[in-house]
# Entry
Amino acid sequence: MYHINLKSHMFDALFAGWTIWFALGVIVFWLAGSPRKAIRATTRLWVRGVLLGLKHVVGLDYVETGRDLIPTEPCLIVCNHQSTWETLAFLVLFPDVAIVAKKELLRIPIISWYLRKSPMIIIDRETGSKSLKIMLNQSREALSGGRSVLIFPEGTRMKELEPIRFKRGVELLYAKLGVPVLPVLVNSGKFWGLGQPGKRGGTITVSYLPPIPAGMPAGLFVRKAEAQLEAERTRLM
# Structure
């Protein structure tokens, strides 16, 4: 346990130092008018550095399965949420993705500026129907610009063995956006999850599952997506 905690703390120190370097970019990009493509590329560079640190310091890597199932056109991506890992990794796995994120994410110094300017779809769940309207409008804007939209339908991080249940908002996006949905399952909670004292070495699996076409009744879509994700979660246990 001591060995695990030591590696985890070493990574945390590396994470902080790596992030501080990107403070210089904030000034440069602000003076240049905040060019979105350059900011997204820089954000991906930051994430690649984080993933590299996890691999070489903690011993935590990842593998993808079913990548050939990803639709060629922009789509809605729904992924279970067990760790901070997938919030970061998806910026590399889907280079131009627009992530629906809670405003709490903007508390991260420096990187919050990059996420705002990328831009991501930031919502305040306390505003209720207003946040749903913002999420829908910004999702439409992202899709029209050729960017897929990622949402964590459980709403927050869940423990590794908790059943996957979607919260309000996902049905609305499915019904109104009219695009295919790509379910994605991660088992990151085994290695960097809630209640764990530190980050553990191992290999996270990112499973891309068969897409769900647009046009189904929203309630049926939710049940189908939950069932697909739950079956894959059970398989990877």
